[in-house]
Amino acid sequence: MHAFRKQHLYLVPFILIAVTVAIYSFPLLISFGQELIAKQGLELTPPSQEVSAKPGQKVKFAVKIRNPFSNSVPVKIRVEDFTASGDEGQIALTKDDDYSVIGWAQVEPSSFTLKAGGEQTVSVSLSVPQSAAGGRYGALVFSVAPNIENQKGSVTAVSQEIASLFLLKIDGPANENLTLESIKAPSFSEFGPIPMSMTFRNTGNIHTKTAGLINVTDMFGNKVQDVVVKPTNVFPGATRVITTNLNKRFLFGFYTITAAMYYGKENHVLNASSRFFVMPIRLIGIVVIVLAIIYAGRKRIRKAGKALFG
Q1: Model-level pTM?
Q2: Regarding beta strands 48-53 and 160-170, do their DSSP bridges make them parallel or antiparallel, or are they unpaired?
Q3: Is 70 exceeded by the pLDDT of residue 207?
Q4: Rg (CA), the chain
Q5: For 255, which of 64, 79, 89, 111 is 20 to 30 Å away at the CA?
Q6: Where does the pLDDT of residue 26 fall: very low under 50, low under 70, confident under 90, or very high at 90 and above?
């Protein structure tokens, strides 16, 4: 029995190595995309757009709506104000008397029946007051009545509201003031990818886009990667968190991330930096255990050889 255990002692390191490879060759989180086969909703083009105007000017723009349903739908349109909600880019419809665009807007047509597979272009006119300046934010909301008769003559309950956003920039005294409050990454990780986030605050009176890159360097100052950050709107009075990833799996040691972000007509520069540490502790632990078992096994083999052959 003792000899049998010695013979199988050699298998332990290989078993641990196989387990290690199995664990770390698979992603820690596996997500499968699920296709939802469901009836498609009304489609708007574009979902959002930027409009520029001068004080006292009348500007026009258009939105196209398409009906992919197999039956006609009655559509009504209204204009609402919207504002930023939360720090992840969400919006909320609001009633804002001081910065409202509802009284400036005329929609044509404001209601119609959209045939199956049909399209309709909706025109919007904005009459900008002479005293207006800065940014205004509106939504063209398309509503579908709840009762629709299908081809078989029965009534189907369908209710839907979708919106196309418009971001109005008015020439005049505009205060573009964006600050980068922080850049963060988890202080410790075992493996990548490493999530990174930046928090911006807009204290101006107009929305502004920010874009740039995050430079990642190792503990020796060598560049690991430049992560490009795509242009993102930050609305006035709002805080916005922009997230991205350092898409490298195997990392080791201390790393520094430095953001170089730009915004506004004059390309103002915003900088921030932070550090994080990466070490695959579990993998190192398993390797140490394997090496210890191999070393102990070699000592036992030598002792057994001396006892057997003298």
Answers
A1: 0.72
A2: parallel
A3: yes
A4: 31
A5: 89
A6: very low
Measured between alpha carbons, how far is residue 178 from residues 39, 98, 236, 247, 290 in Å? 42, 22, 9, 28, 53
Residue for token pair 């979902």:
47
The torsion angles phi and psi of 35, rounded to 5 degrees, stand at -85, 125
Alpha helices in the chain (DSSP H): 2-9, 11-25, 281-309
Residue for token digits 């399209």? 119
Compute how many other C-beta atoms are within 10 angstroms of the C-beta atom of residue 221: 7
Percent of the chain with pLDDT over 90: 59
Q: Where are the domains of the chain?
A: 43-170, 176-279
| Residue pair 175/184 in contact by the 8 Å Cβ criterion | no
58 pLDDT higher than 60:
yes
Among the ranges given (37-51, 132-146, 172-186, 205-219), the one the predictor scored with the smallest mean pLDDT: 37-51
At residue 100, φ and ψ (nearest 5 deg) are -75, 145
Tell me the mean pLDDT in the region 10-20: 49
Q: 163-187: b or e for each residue (b if 16 or more CB lie within 10 Å)? A: bbbbbbbbeeebebbbebeebbbee
Structure token pair of residue 175: 């205060």
Cis peptide preceding 173, ω within 30 of 0: no
The CATH number assigned to the domain with range 43-170 reads 2.60.40.10
Q: Is 191 in contact with 251 (CB distance < 8 Å)?
A: yes
Q: Among 127, 125, 159, which Cα is nearest to 142's?
A: 159
> Could you tell me the pLDDT band of residue 28, with boundaries at 50, 70 and 90?
very low
| Residue where the block lists tokens 């101006």 | 204
What does the DSSP 8-state code read for residue 55?
A: T
278: its two tokens: 């990466």
**What's the chain's length in residues?**
310
Question: Which CATH architecture does the domain made up of 176-279 adopt?
Answer: Sandwich (2.60)
Residue 170 to residue 206: CA distance in whole angstroms: 9
Report the mean per-residue pLDDT for the chain.
83
